[in-house]
Amino acid sequence: MRDDLVIDPLDKRPDLAPMVWQLSYVWPTYMTQDPVSHFYFTTVERDHPEHVLVAYEAARPDVPVARAFTVPFEFGTAQRSSLPDDGWDAVIRWGALDLSLGRTPTHVSALEIAIRPERRGEGLAAVLLAAMRDNVQRLGFTELFAPVRPTGKANELHTPMSEYAFRTRDDGLPADPWLRVHVRAGGEIVRVCPRAMVISGSLVEWREWTGLPFDRTGDVEVPGALVPIHCSVEHDHAVYVEPGVWVRHRLS
Q1: Is the pTM of this model over 0.85?
Q2: How many CA atoms lie within 13 A of 143 on its CB side?
């Protein structure tokens, strides 16, 4: 933990809740349009405050530096014997269903670590990941899964994730910087989740979200996306199916 940074969970500091949402702007608009996210983000302050971390400088306690979200869910049953292909979306649905049915969660999944753009490049991602691991242990869990969104994949839109995710450097660590942070922290790459997040919309909506014309049927390359968006002018819709990479952190 950096001496100048304070990281608190919302269950201990509910007064920090407004700061959480001040960082929503760090994602491209289209990335906030996944309908599954509403199962989590609209109720997280009420249902899972212990799974929300807020980071700020001790000298500037009213300015958020970063935030992190996790979600608890039941895993290891006959119906859930393997990690799902629809990664991020699946664990949110599982968590919401388990909560509604009163099931006791057995595992936790990371959902997001977001850092203020002007503070990126300072090594804060590793700091937040370490805090997330510590918090999950505080809550009594021994494993943390993460449907990781490899940051460098946006530079290789047409490379299959099955190839990109397992690429390594000479030192054996992942070539992707975000996967590398996870592995250095003790994570183990398990496999690709081919449809971790699905975002669909009309062409008007995609134009509003991206500022791009979306006027031709076929693949559209959108800044920040990990794969091209599939556009159909004839059917007036475009769909983004984002792959991810499952990583397992054993905490004990």
Answers
A1: yes
A2: 12
